[in-house]
Amino acid sequence: MKTFKASVNNTDHFEISNENIQNLDVVPTKANTFHILKNNQSFNAEIIEKDFNNKTYAVKVNNTVYNVAIADYLYQLIKDMGFEVGASKHVNDIKAPMPGLILDISVSQGQEVKENDTLLILEAMKMENVLTSPRDGVIKTISVAKGDAVDKNQLLIEFE
């Protein structure tokens, strides 16, 4: 049975099963708005904010707003293993993924880069491979130059 962990306003914590969800009497009334019947009591609910990456939602129930965080089984397993889904990336250097030739370097030392910005182009096996930044940061050092031949796992760029 799949379960989800939910917390409301970071104070109340619940474990919810698929069975609990299927037993809810919920009727969508319009986009992001629902009518819920629970223990013969009527509730109007509206999802007013959603952040799918962080699995957080702001839900207004009968004019009171609740901040809800939901974690499914896989998310919980990954967190228990010491990883965080969507957590900031702590990559501090870029190494050559394969032997090749540096065709172009798009950054310079001290330059600020954003995640997915092009750092350099590595030619390997007659293919151009664009290496991009794994995170926002500042270039600390560039250990290669245009035209250099590099080996697999050779240090190319370091971040501050």
Automatic annotation (TrEMBL):
Domain of life, per lineage: Bacteria
Pfam family, one: Biotin_lipoyl
All residue ranges annotated as the Lipoyl-binding domain in the record: 82-160
InterPro entries tied to this protein: Biotin_BS, Biotin_Carboxyl_Carrier/Decarb, Biotin_lipoyl, Single_hybrid_motif
Keywords: Biotin
SUPFAM superfamilies: Single hybrid motif
Protein name in the entry: Lipoyl-binding domain-containing protein
Species per Swiss-Prot/TrEMBL record: Corallibacter vietnamensis
